[in-house]
Amino acid sequence: MSADGRRRYRTVRGTLSEATAALARLVAEAGGRADTLASTNPTELSRPAMQRSLAAMTNAGQSPSSVHQAAVFLSGGLAWARRQGQIEHNTALALRLPDGTVLAPPRRH
C-alpha cells in the first residue's frame, strides 16, 4: 500500500532483472523504501532478510494475510529461479512468518 493509502499493481513480463527494476520503481512510486528486498539479488537473499522484511510489513500495519501473500510471492519467485537454474536453493522454504506460522512449500500446477 502506498503512502496515500492506495494499492498499486503492475504486471511485469520479462527477465528477473527487469522485474526487479520494475518492483523498485513501483515501491518508489508508492512512497515506500526501495531498498528493502527489491534491490536484493536472489542469490544473496537470506532467510533473516526475508523475515525482517515481513516483520516490517507487520509493524507497518499490514494484515497477516498481506504478509502471508508477500511470503508466498517470495517463495514462488525463488522456486521459479531455482527451476531456471539461477539459484541453488529456495531460501524461503519453511520460512517462519511474524505470527509464528511456517510457510508451506509452493505448489506447482
Shape: globular
What is the averaged pLDDT score? Answer: 79
Oligomer class: single chain
Question: What order do the SSEs take from the amino end to the carboxyl end, as H and E?
Answer: HHH
**Cα separation of the termini:** 29 Å
Structural class: mainly alpha
Helix content: 40-55%
Tally of separate domains: 2
Mind explaining what this structure looks like?
With 109 residues, the protein is mainly alpha-helical. The chain has 2 domains: 1-39, no CATH class; 46-109, no CATH class. Helices cover 43% and strands 0% of the residues. It has 3 helices and no strands. The chain has helices spanning 16-29, 47-59, 64-83. Helix 2 packs antiparallel against helix 3 (64-83). The longest helix is centred in the last third of the chain and has 20 residues, at 64-83. The protein is globular and about 35 Å long. The model has no long low-confidence stretch (mean pLDDT 79).
Sum this structure up briefly.
This protein is mostly helical and 109 residues long. The chain contains three helices and no strands.
What key phrases describe this protein's structure?
about 110 residues, mainly alpha, 2 domains
Task: Give the SSE layout.
Layout: H1 16-29, H2 47-59, H3 64-83
